Amino acid sequence: MKTVLYTRIFIWTPIIFIGYFISAQIGFKIAFLNSQVSPVWPPEGVGLASLLLLGPVALPGIYLGATLANFFNNPHLQTAFIIGIGNTLSSYINYRIIKKVTEKSDPIYSTKDLIYFLSIGTFPGSFVSAIMGVTSLWYWDFLSSELYFNVFFTWFSGEMLGFLIVAPLLYVWFHPKSKLKLELRKQIELLLWIILVYISGSIAFSDEWPLLFLPIPFVIVTSIRFRQFGATLSTVVLAFTAVTLTIDGKGVFARRDASGLSINDSLIFLDAFLFCISGIAYFLVTATRERERAQLASLKSLQVLNELKEKANEELEQKVLERTAVIEEQRTEIEKQLDMAKRIQESLFPQKEIKPQGVEILFKNIPMMKVGGDLYDFVWKPEKQELGVFICDVSGHGIPAALLSALVKTSLEKWKQDPVGLKDNLESIRQRIIPNLREHFVTASLLHLYTGTGSLTFARAGHFPLFIIRKSGALVSLKPMGRIITPIFEILAEEERFQLETGDLIVMLTDGLTEAREPNSLQMFGEERLLHLIRDIRSLPLFEIQDQVFQSVIQLSGGITAIQDDLTLGLIRYSGITVEKAKT
C-alpha cells in the first residue's frame, strides 16, 4: 500500500506543481496593491480540484507550486514559505469541509451539495490564506499598515473566486468518469455559445451601454444545453472578462472615489455579481441533473410496476408506499432549503439594534411564506444626530420576491453613505435594480430625521403616505408625489418636510396589513381601521402597540398560516430629547 501511495505522489506531484505554477503566473498578471496580491487567484481552484480528484496525494504538489510561484514572483524565502503554507491549508481546509458535509466530491452534483459548497466550502480556507499571506507581507515590510485591510480583502476575494469558479471547471473537465462526449456539430455549438458569452460580457462591462444583464441568457442557455461542462466554462469566461475590464476601470462595477478607481469597492460588487451568475448557472445544472436522475428513477419504477402488475395488490400497495416515502423525503429536503433561504433573507434586515437619541424605533416583518418581498433598513449617524429609514414592498410573493428584495438591499449603498438626498437616493435605487425587475415593480419610502431638532423629510415611490399620530391623537399624512419603481417610468419623487413635536408617533407599513381580510370575504382590514387602532393605543410602549396590531390582523385573516401577504410595521416615537438635554 505504501509503495502504491509513494508512486502516486511521485507521478502527480510534478503535474500539479506545473499546473499550479502556470495558473499562479496568470494570477500575478492582474495583481495590484502588491505584486503578490491578485483579485482572482486561479491556483486555489487548481489546488481544491486536485484534492477533490486525487485526495491528500495532491498536497506536496500544491505546496511546492505555491511556495515556488510566490518565491519566483518575490524572491523572499520567509514570505514564500508562509504563503505556500497558507495556500496549501486554504485548499485542504475547504476540501475537508466539502468531504465532511457532502455526499459527493462533485460540488455541483446536487442542490444540497452546491449550497454547502457556496456557503461553507470556500470561506474558511480563503480566510486562513489571506490572514497568513497578508500578515507575512506586512511583517517583512512588503506592505504598509495603511494598506493591510485593502490587501487582505483583495486577497480574500481572489481566493474565493478561485474556489467558486476555477475549481468546479477543473473538477468537471478533468474527472475521469464525466468526459464530455460530443459530436463535431455539438462541439462547434459549444464554442459558439462560449464566444457569445465573451462578446456579451465585453459589451456588458464596457462604458458605452448599461447592459449588465446581457450575458445572463447566454450563460443560462449554455448551462442548460451542456450541463456542468457549459456552466463551468461559461462562468470562467465571463469572470475573466468581467475582472479584467473592471480592473481596467470599465463597466458598471468600476467604482471611483477622490483618488480615482477604487479596486476594493469595485470588487465588492463585482464578486457579488459573479457569485450570483455562477450560482444561477450551477443551480440550473444541479436542478437539471436531479430532474434527470428523478426521471430515470421514475422510468425504472414504471418498468418495475409493469412487470409486477400481475402480482397481488398487497405488493403493489407496498411499492406505492415506498414511492410516497421518496416523495416525502424530497419534500422534506425542499423545506430544509426553504428554511436556509429564510435564514439568508433574515440576514438582510438590520442585525444590530439602534438607539438614536430622542427617538424610539421598532420594526417587525412577518412573511406570508418562509421568504417574502418586504424589506426595511436603518441608518443612524450619531455624530450628526441623523436617522434614515428605508421600507419597501416588492410585488409578488415567495422566492422571486425575496431574490428581488436581496437585490434592493445591495442597491442601498449610496443611501447608507448619505441619507439626506431622498429623491436622488430613490432614483439611485431604481437605476440599480431595474435591469432585473422585468414584470415586477417595487414601492418604497425614505425618511430622514434630525433627532435633535425634530426636523423630518419624507419621500416615496408609490408607497404608503407617512402617517404621524400627534400626542393629542390628531392624524397627519405626508403624501409627496412619487411613482412606483418600474423599468418604464422615472419616479419623479418629491420631498415633503415636517416638524415633529414631543410624543409624535410615526407609522410606516406595507399593504399586507391594510389588505388583510377574513377567509372567503372581500372586506379588508383597511387603512382607517389600522390607524384608528394605533391612535387608540398610542400611549402604550411600542412593542405592545406592535403586538396588538399584528394580533388583530392575523386574527382577522384566520391565523398566521392564512395571511395572504407579507406584513411589515414600523413605529417611531419622537421624544425630543437632544444630546445636549441628555447631558444636562
UniProtKB/TrEMBL annotation:
The keyword Ribonucleoprotein does not apply. The chain crosses the membrane at residues 12-33, 45-64, 76-93, 114-140, 152-174, 190-206, 226-247, 267-285. GO terms for molecular function: phosphatase activity. Residues 356-574 form the PPM-type phosphatase domain. Gene3D superfamilies: PPM-type phosphatase domain. It is found in: Cell membrane. It holds the Pfam family SpoIIE. GO terms for cellular component: plasma membrane. Keywords: Cell membrane, Coiled coil, Hydrolase, Membrane, Transmembrane, Transmembrane helix. It comes from the Bacteria. Residues 299-347 form a coiled coil. The keyword Transmembrane applies. It is a multi-pass membrane protein. This is SpoIIE family protein phosphatase. The lineage of its organism: Bacteria, Pseudomonadati, Spirochaetota, Spirochaetia, Leptospirales.
